[in-house]
Amino acid sequence: MPSGRTVKLILYEVLEFACLCVPVFVVLERFASLLSFVELNNRTAYWLVVAASIAYVTSVSLFVWVPLKYFILKSRGFLEEVTHWRPVTLAHALLCTLPCFAIVISSSKVQLDAEILHDHFNELPVSLVLFALICVDIVERIRPYRLRGQDRLDFEVPGPVLTHLEQVSTVSSQLQANRAANGSVLRSEGINTSPTGRWANMDGISRTSSTAYLYSHSHYDFGCLRFMCVRDPRHELFLETFVFWLDTVEMIRVAGVQKIYYSNWVFPIYILSFLSILRGVLTPHNPMLTTLGVVAQDLPFLVLRVCLVILYGYVTPILYIMKNLLSCLTFVYFHFLTKLKVFNRGSMF
């Protein structure tokens, strides 16, 4: 009976291999159908493209994918310590995503040259390519986590937790020290120094307030909504991954609009989208990820979207234009302008 780790490893590898092969087969089959239609139902062209797709997937799997996975599994610790990038994601982007994008662009060029509007690859192939890329990204990120059992972070702590607290001098403790040093003077002036006196009451109020403060910040009572106050890093990983690719997905969706797909604008859209996909090669905590996101995605997408809106109208939502604009402006301001003397004054807000 194989262990749970072995089953999880086999599941991950089969899923990644399927994400490598299936999009290539689907995109090339659609391209073969397009060539067969353009050449008046020429079945020879269709089967040649299908055979080429099978040969490509077989050769890539045997000579690139399998040796790469074997090397990574054998030296995973070395790669995690030395590098800050993910070779599996890079290999998938180069071996699957890039050829599929090239086939989609070629299909547009074929239809433009033949002046036949037959198939613009608007939904299934492109969505499948992007979904396969997202699945590979999720698999690479979720590997350190368990698939079974609970691995969640609760918003609510079961109760107040007592830890070692270092005593901090307060006003009341200073008053007590002064009272002990000048006890005779205080007695002569008739000031009440008993435990039930004024200073003792103030000290009791201070300690009670501190205890209430610690208790209120270590225990949250949500009542009947307590079952909703849970967090699971595995679930959040799925959400973060889809949000990470959302801007690129929207950019490629714009290329599926018919009046854009049958134009030369499809070339810069897919080229810039692939450059933004290369961000996923870096690990999520790589310090270069923010800079690469602005240089390879937000700035080119901002210029491209503004041009598309000017020429074709609102083919892309204004929300994404504002997202790219604010991302570029805040990056320049917080990383460069705040270092200048005029923006680095303590008197300014």
UniProtKB/TrEMBL annotation:
InterPro entries: Uncharacterised_FAM23-like_TM. It comes from the Eukaryota. The chain crosses the membrane at residues 9-32, 44-66, 261-282, 302-322. Keywords: Membrane, Transmembrane, Transmembrane helix. The keyword Amino-acid biosynthesis does not apply. Coiled coil: none annotated. Signal peptide: none annotated. This is Transmembrane protein 236. It comes from Silurus meridionalis.
